[in-house]
Amino acid sequence: MELSITQPDDWHLHLRDGDLLKAVVPHSANHFGRAIVMPNLKPPVTTTAAAVAYRESILKALPTESNFTPLMTLYLTDNTDPDEIKLARKSGVVFAVKLYPAGATTNSQDGVSDLLGNSLPVLEEMVEQNMPLLVHGEVTNSDVDIFDREKVFIDTILRPLLQKLPRLKVVMEHITTQDAVRFVETCRGGSVAATVTPQHLLLNRNALFQGGLQPHNYCLPVLKREIHRQAIVSAVTSGNKRFFLGTDSAPHERQRKEATCGCAGIYNAPVALAAYAKVFAEAGALEYLEAFTSFNGPDFYGLPRNESKIKLIKQPWKVPEYYALKDGGQLVPMFAGRNLDWLPSTLHERSI
Amino acid sequence: MELSITQPDDWHLHLRDGDLLKAVVPHSANHFGRAIVMPNLKPPVTTTAAAVAYRESILKALPTESNFTPLMTLYLTDNTDPDEIKLARKSGVVFAVKLYPAGATTNSQDGVSDLLGNSLPVLEEMVEQNMPLLVHGEVTNSDVDIFDREKVFIDTILRPLLQKLPRLKVVMEHITTQDAVRFVETCRGGSVAATVTPQHLLLNRNALFQGGLQPHNYCLPVLKREIHRQAIVSAVTSGNKRFFLGTDSAPHERQRKEATCGCAGIYNAPVALAAYAKVFAEAGALEYLEAFTSFNGPDFYGLPRNESKIKLIKQPWKVPEYYALKDGGQLVPMFAGRNLDWLPSTLHERSI
């Protein structure tokens, strides 16, 4: 069996920079036509000028003959000027602004400290420019249980924000809870959507501890209880157009991830399409797969759908244990060493 | 300020064997008069003969002049014979039998698969011999959320067990939830007690993720939500005699713990007394500290209380970042590199 679908896009991707960028970008370019590229570099991408430069370095790192298009984002800080949003829109290169609550995840120390106060003029300009706000939806107060932080963010920050600015386009990124599902499903109007990662569809929090602590299953927002996973699966396999593909693929070198930093992030770019297909197939909802991977995202962003097609072939393939980096480091992908069905034709035709 | 208390005992300790035993036993012998030594070696200590041999190797590994007394345990398996319990009681060396549900934690693959069926004759003999059953109280079904496994164990295994054998002496080891607290508090008769670790009194599950994944805060049963921590603190600082000190100190070499195995276990022997004192001091309940550390345990086991005294001096001291092992490995203790108050006099007088 094989499926032919419109080429997907990845609406949430970390490509890093330098040698790591060169190592990982082919894995995304193998599958996806476009990707929203997250701006949490060191230093973060806070200006259109920096986004243009970052885009150039991504294009340079691409395999020849790749038609992959990076869609750039700005990192919202306490110092972002509303004029930067105008510049960003004019550039044709920047497609969204990313909100990291300060301290929420990898390289988020420059994030926003007072979204509903200090950041309001920038957000108002984003409404004017129809520029989406991409939200890492967790509060960062260490008194709040880590498994509650998404729900508390929705209740204390996101709802008040949308009451103040009901026309603001918001993507709640990498949702992990039934609370987020309900929030997205019940928001009035068409201004709120969500990306969903492979890991939050296929793993619950037991996977963090199965057979010992599993750093390669650690991401933020952290994996949740099974009922939340099921709620997210139901949401995306129902065909609701407000949910679309965003891998949150986030490479960290093995040694750093396991020991030095314990960084959050799962490297799923090489397996993401196979993983999403598995979810829809197991739910008996393959007819909704293409909308999730290839239609809902561009429709929300107001961009054309891709014209090319890819195939997903129902054929077992083994995920590599790791990918070797030039400097001797390793990248461990999601499902390392395991068998998956649904081989994307792009992988079939090129080597990985 | 200094406190003088009867020398404490550790009613739940992992001493390992070989070089690791030699490295860690002084840390326990520095503080504690006696310790219940867990039998989860490879292969497990399943017979009195093996327990006697293990005891000898512990005594040999002790610093000269140490009066530390190891109290041995047997590892309950599907093949344990009731006669082994008679032998154990006669030996004067074995003081309890440890239940590991198969697959629950480090070296538990030989554990019990059918406690309420196949193991019943052994348990009946334990009632006859007044031999306590020490329980790792978690179900091992991977479908059960890891944070629910203690509660489910109580409801599905421990309650039925005590209905069948109401005279069986049970210690619920390293309790982590308000459910376990309530269970112990409300059991009729004096046959059920619980040990409590420093980590479950001082850390909630956010500590597993604070500033990146923290393997050295990973133990089983895993750290729980703050309300559970608070319930356990309330229980032990209330003076209830059914709760007593059991560190569950569980050394794993750093590299193995961080990368190779992700093993569960926190090495807290060097800091345990300071940590317990911190808990009781912060709760304004120092008057109950000595009963928790030094009376409730021996009273439950029917053993005499220690006669010697130790001092706890309110004086800041810094926990080492790690302890070097002979083979070049490292042991990272709980609270590595942090300052604690309450320096035990035994540490003050000897070097650590």
**Number of helices in the DSSP assignment of chain A:** 12
Instruction: Specify the biggest β-sheet of chain A.
Output: 8 strands, parallel
The low-confidence parts of chain A are 348-352
CATH superfamily of chain A: Metal-dependent hydrolases
What is the fold named in CATH at topology level of chain A?
Answer: TIM Barrel
Residue share in β-strands of chain A: 15-25%
Widest sheet: strand ordering of chain A: 2-3-4-5-6-7-8-9
The number of distinct structural domains of chain A comes to 1
Overall radius of gyration of chain A? 19 Å
* Overall pLDDT score of chain A: 94
Structure description:
The structure is a homodimer of 352-residue chains. Chain A has 352 residues and is α/β, with parallel strands linked by helices. Chain A has one domain: TIM Barrel (Alpha-Beta Barrel), CATH 3.20.20. In chain A, 35% of the residues lie in helices and 16% in strands. Chain A contains twelve helices and 15 strands. In chain A, strands 2-3-4-5-6-7-8-9 form an eight-stranded parallel beta sheet. In chain A, helix 6 (178-186) packs parallel to helix 8. Chain A is globular, with a radius of gyration of 19 Å. The interface between A and B is medium-sized, with 26 and 25 residues. Chains A, B: Pathway: Pyrimidine metabolism; UMP biosynthesis via de novo pathway; (S)-dihydroorotate from bicarbonate: step 3/3. Chains A, B: It is an enzyme of class 3 (hydrolase).
